User: Fold these one by one.
Assistant:
Number 1:
Amino acid sequence: MLTRRSLVGSLVLGALGARTALAQSTFPAREVTFIVPWNAGGSNDILARGLQPLLKERGITMIVENQPGATGTIGMRRVATANPDGYTLGMGTSSTLAYMAEGKTPLKSNQFSHIARVSIDPLMLLVPGSSPHQTLDDFLAHMKKNPGSVSIGTPGNYNLNHIFASMTARAAGVAYINAPYTGGAKVITDLAGGQIQAAVLKPAESLGQLQQGLVRALGVFADERLRQFPDVPTFKERGYDVFPFGPVVQMAYVVAPAKLPPEVRTKLIDGFSAAIGDQRFKDFAERNAFLIAPLTGDALTAEVDRVEQSIKVVAEKVFKS
């Protein structure tokens, strides 16, 4: 027979369980906070705000908050430590993954529940529009003549942008000045203004300045030219190997805190998948030079693990060589 105490305990646990089940079944009952761990105006911010109206049509009202710092780890720490109820999400990136892979943050990938990949973004080497260097070969020749004095801006340290800035200097055979910023929006502003001599950025965060002639693209860190920039050569075709230690990829993806209830995770996956697959978002991605490569749930988790391991191998050799 149940004692009075155990009976009360059972009733309390039953009520809590019913309340939790109800909360999950009615998700989302309020606005969802989406943490972009980079400055406003950068590529990840652009992506998040492009998804906002499409998600709202599907019952997910998303409030975007920018919380930059430490190559994305400050904002992502907030996501990792949030209540795992689906109301706090964040934009993970390969840049923050690089910090994790290199042990520069206590954050771990298993602190997140992976929802959906939003984009893959090949990186480009850019110079100011006023730069005298018209080609990749011209710029590398300039670096050779001025060892250790050419500055290359990147959004953060020890990430893919930093890796490719280092590989650019490696192609020239000289040292360079690494100029890290808290986001791509600040890099492109200083590059267009001539405060730095070059930058490694995503096409999306430099598209407007490229179209206005404020900056110029010299090379793409990829195996093939980008369809949106058919006149910009790859480093590979110019004879420079920027993947000597293996391929690495820059991507952006949606995460929630770990231990997210399965029903809530499914609703988020369905909502983001529908928004990313919407033709209007595809058109948005095309206009802003993003590449869409859908991946969700456990398949995304496996890809994040693979990319993190690849970055770890490459970073160890680039930054210690």
Number 2:
Amino acid sequence: MKQHYPFVNPPLPYAYDALEPFIDEETMRLHHDAHLQTYVDHLNIIIKQYPALHNWTLEQLIKWNDNLPVEIQDSVRNNAGGVYNHILYFSRLAPPETAVWPSGEFLLLLERRFGGFQQFKEAFKKAAMSVFGSGYAFLVANRDGLLEIVTTANQDNPLEIGYYPILVLDVWEHAYYLKHHNKRDGYIDDWFNRLSF
């Protein structure tokens, strides 16, 4: 997330069909090559006009959005958030042969905070189901370094409130509509089957 202008859409670290049957190839192509690319393109168009921002990273554009020229704050929040959120989303998915499950210290943190991995999954799914309309569910480290589950609307990002995102679930309908239609709960279950830490 340390890249700066001109921003790029990194290639997926796996094949488009590598997450089948849980996340379908067509959705992956549209989600990565169309949706994420659009956010990258729009962010570059905005930032190009402001040379003083050319060295700002995605994180800085999100965290310090209030310091940007007022006329671009909303569009940068939407597009920088769209780039960051999607890159994090795709980076935390993997085919089963390369997936990494929580272990060691991180697993202990999940157990201390949520009571166990299964309890974390249940709490995370409940949060993701609670998002009205479009948005995200995040696992974050809060300002005290403790794990929390937070949700955001649209392309908002927890960096804006001083939290550090660890993983994210995209609950915009474009992430699941081709396979699951309006059944978000089935998509969330499938996402957990391809989640990698």
Number 3:
Amino acid sequence: MSSFRLQLDLQLFSGEKTEPATPKKRQEARKKGQVAKSMDLPAAFILFFSFLSFFLLGGYMKEKLVSLFQSIFYNFLTLNLSMNNIMVLFETVSLQMLLILGPIFLISIVIAVLGNYLQIGFLMTGDPLMMKFSKINPLEGAKKLFSLRAVVDFLKSMLKMTIIGIVVYQTLWGEREHIMQLARLPLEEIIIYASAVTLRLGIKIGFVLIVLAILDYIYQKYEHEKSLKMSKQDIKDEYKKSEGDPLVKGKIREKQRRMALQRMMAEVPKADVVITNPTHFAVAIQYDAGKMQAPTVIAKGTDYIALKIKQVAKDNGIITMENKPLARALYAQVEIGESIPSDMFQAVAEVLAYVYKMKGK
């Protein structure tokens, strides 16, 4: 009873997903688009580097923007209202806005690509885009809505909003004296001050979001590794699928050995002599002067197979000779179908000469 209970416990334990995923399981998951990835990390990088680029390229953007307004006020307001003039104005404004905002767009695209590449590398897959009925199943949707992952995502959002609120509050509270004096300043200084505060807030918030996104990526990697874990039975099943069932492979090998043995036994009647140990080894030698450059081993075996070779030789009138050293050497050094090596020519030639003499050749 105790042994049955122990076996049952071991079977239950083998079903637990406690083993790390195999490379094959990881590769299959990657092909399906199942990778450890934080959606917050690229967004945080884009926000941070966008505000940083505003800070670094502020002079360039200001110069281009002032030049655009000067061009509009000095060159276009005095022109007649016509289709051609409107098209020229539209093209000029579009080109200038592209030059102003182009660097920001380019930086955002590069950062977005790098943010994803650093997490998952290069990955092209259409599996997540395929239509699956499970995605529109209301029950599955309800499960995801009330799952642990949904709770974690909600807590992450609350944490981000709380931290961002604290950063904004502390920054504005530190600038309260300057903010109270804005009503007495010219419009240009107000705009410059508001821009500077906004840039500092954007950089601070972006940095905070990057830190939170890195923590989220670590969590996503942990969840991904957890979801990929396999049980011992899963690993065995995967091995069977990739390498084949050991029982089936064993049967195939046994059948192959049996067929090879049958083919070998069919060659024994062609032998000129069988050299034996006398009981443990048997090697069948054939020599055809017109076709072979040297005598060839056409069959060999030990124990039971050796007895079978000697029995087939006896049934077909093949001479059997006992030569223990030669039988052992031939069995160890010469494979079936191979010619006798030169260092054994003398010994084999003496055996064949004796056989031919007995046959009257």
Number 4:
Amino acid sequence: MQKKLKEAKGKRHFFDESFELALLSLPTTIWYFLFSFLPMFGVIIAFKNYRIFGPGFIGNLIKSKWVGFDNFAFLFKTKNAWLIVRNTLGFNAIFIVLGIVIPISLAVLLSLLYNQRLGKIYQTMMFLPHFLSWVVVSYFLYAFLNAQNGLFNHLIVKYGGTPIQWYAEKAYWPWILIFMSVWKGMGYGTVMYLAAITGIDKSLYEAAYLDGASRWQGVKYITIPSLKSLVIILFIMSLGGIFRADFGLFYQVPMNSAFLYDITTVFDTYVYRAIGTVNIGMSAAAAFFQSIMGFILIFSSNFLIRKLDRNAALF
């Protein structure tokens, strides 16, 4: 009898805790249902030749002709298919690696600062670019790279060089795009890793220092290993977007220069330039393809990591 009472009490206690957590997560659940799951019905557009016959989205969708996978064909039949895949995957692979290495390095350096007030100033300065629109950033960059009045060309001419037509030279732009992406995103990543470093048990460092470890040995043997789980989670999540490109970075920052299309042609810019809003079905097919590939990569990478280290996996 007592055993049953204890079991019932335990179940009731578990229900009470679960009910509170469920209640707290209810607004987020409703938000995701309304704005993430419910709109997934629109995936059907990717398999239809969507046309407007009259008012009402649902009626137009039903009346539009079913074309199957025809909308996906343009992505693979185009002569630029290899260029699109190369640029998208190549740039994103670099962004993922640098988006881990640089923020971790900065977070470690900030955590080692003795002057915490100075550390907050540095942190704010690094975080500020995250809030800037690519449109704003592109015009700041244009002020530096303008062929006639740009700051860089002004310095080049001052020291006896020849002005560079930056927006017509392909060689410089892979490095410019990589730098701009890292510059804009490093502050956000640094804050996440710095929060994780702050949560590490201080007694681990105290014990290491008592045993004669230096500060850098503390970083090597305590800080970096403690960040492993967070790094793996962020890496898996970033793989989900490896087939997506930052449209603002590749379209707005180079000012949509036709000379740079070999560098800036990625999935998102190609779809916009090739079809724009002319064929909604093809646009939806491209987005659906990107989502499916991201889904596959997330689950496959999580499966591999789960085989190697079950506790480090995302799910």
